[in-house]
Design a protein that fits this description.
Strands 2-1-3-4-5-6 form a six-stranded parallel beta sheet, sandwiched between helices. Helix 5 links the parallel strand 5 and strand 6. It is 40% helix and 19% strand.
């Protein structure tokens, strides 16, 4: 499977490279675009400040340009938090998308969003400060109306970015469960 994996608001940190290596070890080809051009951050606040300076349109433009050379192959779009939101936007706009793997985040959908049974898997903490239960319920319904085939996995007690071992949110058990499930999902595509 061809996968483009987008980083979180922290930037392209070691955890993203480790995730890409895990996916490659399972036989996938993976690209990890650096949407922040080398900038990494130690806190959500620093990352968000930089993200806001760049602007949503610039981040999306960089993501599109990074994925474009591979999109004809039929990509699985994946990402962490901000990267998940970016991956979702790209996947819903790419008729050749093979799947969508969301880790720790979602995004709003355009009113006219439409896909043909796009397989989607979301992994998120429970509770998650950035993905409330009400939001996730509404998101799930909107994704279904758009034509996506959605699975949601919740991890009680885990922090928001629980798959990053360098952050306080890290939860080893939830991380391993996430990757077991995600790798199984990718095998079905």
């Amino acid at each position: 499977m061809n996968i483009v994996l987008f980083h979180s608001t922290y930037g392209l940190r070691p955890a993203v490279h480790a995730a890409a290596d895990r996916l490659r070890a399972a036989g996938h080809e993976v690209w990890t675009p650096d949407l922040f051009e080398g900038r990494v951050f130690d806190s959500v606040e620093e990352g968000r400040t930089f993200q806001n300076e760049l602007g949503k349109d610039e981040i999306l433009k960089r993501a599109i340009l990074a994925a474009a050379p591979y999109s004809e192959r039929g990509l699985v779009y994946a990402g962490f938090s901000l990267g998940a939101a970016t991956a979702q936007t790209l996947a819903l706009g790419d008729e050749k998308a093979r799947g969508l793997l969301l880790l720790h985040g979602t995004s709003d959908l355009a009113e006219n969003a439409s896909v043909d049974e796009l397989p989607v898997q979301l992994h998120v903490a429970e509770p998650d400060p950035f993905e409330s239960d009400d939001w996730l319920s509404a998101w799930y319904l909107r994704m279904g109306r758009a034509g996506a085939d959605v699975e949601i996995y919740r991890y009680a007690g885990a922090g928001h970015l629980y798959t990053d071992p360098d952050l306080d949110d890290y939860d080893a058990e939830a991380t391993e469960a996430t990757w077991r499930t995600a790798l199984g999902f990718l095998e079905t595509l």
